[in-house]
Amino acid sequence: MAGNLFGKIAADTLGLSDIGKIIEPKDFDKVDGDDYIMHEDGEKIFFVIKSKSDEYVFTNRGLLHVDGASAVSKKRTVERHEFYYEKVHSVTLETAGTVDLDIEIKFNFGNQAFSIDVDKNQLEQLKDLYKALVEIGKLQGKNYISIEDGTNGLKMANEALSRCVIEGNVTNIVHDLTNFNLDWMEALRKKYSNKDFTEVFEKYINN
Q1: Are 56 and 49 in contact, with CB atoms under 8 Å apart?
Q2: Rg for the chain (alpha carbons), in Å?
Q3: Checking CA distances to 23, which of 99, 171, 183, 202 falls within 20 to 30 Å?
Q4: Global pTM?
Q5: For residues 49 and 65, what is the distance between their CA atoms, to the nearest angstrom?
Q6: Strand partners, 104
Q7: Is the pLDDT of residue 68 over 80?
Q8: In angstroms, how far apart are the furthest CA atoms of the chain?
Q9: Whole-number Å distance between alpha carbons of 165 and 160
Q10: pLDDT confidence of residue 10
Q11: E strand or H helix that includes residue 56
Q12: Which of 173, 172, 152 is nearest to 162 (CA)?
């Protein structure tokens, strides 16, 4: 018992416990993160990296990070990052050198940076995740530009309209114009703010 405890402490000290393993799809339901997935809303796990202290669960809707303080602690903090609210960017993949035990994938969800060490023997699987995150970031970037263009177009139309002489009930006109603007922005966000990236994961992740 003591030997196991000292082994875990040593692994923490050397950083070995932080080297994650990519979990097979048949074992997705066994990871802690599965308990926090919104299965009722169609959320689905596509990729899991698990170390002794952390789990990184990638779903069609975002990332669920089950954060452990150390390999010897049972305390966990669950953080959710959703594609709808946060842009994925700065995705990089670092392969292993001759003596390295791990490879590393880095990315940002919004302002939060992630750096995950993975067993170097699982490079091919990690490449799939890298490609999926890069593609999601590109699509989010295109969507952002489309929303910005649509917003600027609406602003220009309103400015042009403000310079015109409009006859009729001012209260009704303002009411109708406000509702039109709200409907326009809602339609833009609905069209270009993706919540679900199932197609991207199915394209790149070989489950």
Answers
A1: yes
A2: 23
A3: 99
A4: 0.79
A5: 10
A6: 94, 117
A7: no
A8: 86
A9: 11
A10: 42
A11: strand 54-59
A12: 173
pLDDT tens digits, residue range 4-46?
A: 444 444 444 444 458 999 999 999 999 999 999 999 999 999 9
Beta-carbon count within 10 A of 127 CB:
15
Q: What is the H or E stretch that residue 185 is in?
A: helix 170-192
Q: Which amino acid is at 163?
A: R
Handedness of CA 71, 18, 120, 118 (dihedral sign): positive
Question: What distance in Å separates the CA atoms of residue 78 and residue 118, rounded to the nearest whole number?
Answer: 20
| CA distances from residue 52 to 5, 69, 76, 79 in whole angstroms, order as listed | 13, 10, 12, 17
148, two tokens: 């910005």
Domains of the chain (ranges plus CATH)?
1-207 (2.30.29.50)
Place of tokens 């452990």: 68
**Could you tell me how many residues make up the chain?**
207
